[in-house]
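#lab-general

N.A. 3:47 PM
ok so I finally got the sequence cleaned up, no stray characters, all 194 residues accounted for. can someone with queue access submit it? mine expired

B.Y. 3:52 PM
send it over

N.A. 3:53 PM
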Amino acid sequence: MIAALRIQQLQTRIARFDDQQAYRELYTSLYPSLYHFILEMIKSRQLAEEIISDVFIKIWEKRKTLEEIHNLRIYCFVASKNLTLNQLEKQKRTATCNLDEYAAHLHSMNVDPGQLMITEEMLKRVQQVVESLPVRCRLAFKLVKENGFRYKEAAEILDVSTKTIENQLAIALKKINAAVHFDVCRSIQLSVGN
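B.Y. 4:20 PM
back already:
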């Protein structure tokens, strides 16, 4: 994850000097987290890539006023969310769905089991629980736990209160805990039986 200070430096270089190298670094630094965030909502790799491109095209077009943005990282996530919601609204009108891209998305999910220090079976259960969460709850969880946003920042991105983020995370963690606790109990019973 790119540091806030580095983003500010890049933001200043882009705004003041039309620095294309700084623009590229900003793009490559934010792309992975924006991509996964958008993909959670839209389930289309191609559309996620297009939305990110649109966000960064707007950043370049508005580069002279870029320093007016207080937190560029949050700005990028909010812009991504808004463009994604617009795209979802268009999709509702046309009622199309690409199941191949959705299946590819499910296979592309990656969580570092070493970082989580849980078994592969438990990891699968946690992923299933996270994926089964309501959209807002899942997005809140992923913004805070995977993208490292503070509650206030996640609330700003999703346009909800900080309390809503706290509640959504409590729901997510309760469901994950129940799933993991179930596996632990089953594992203990199986090992005692042997």
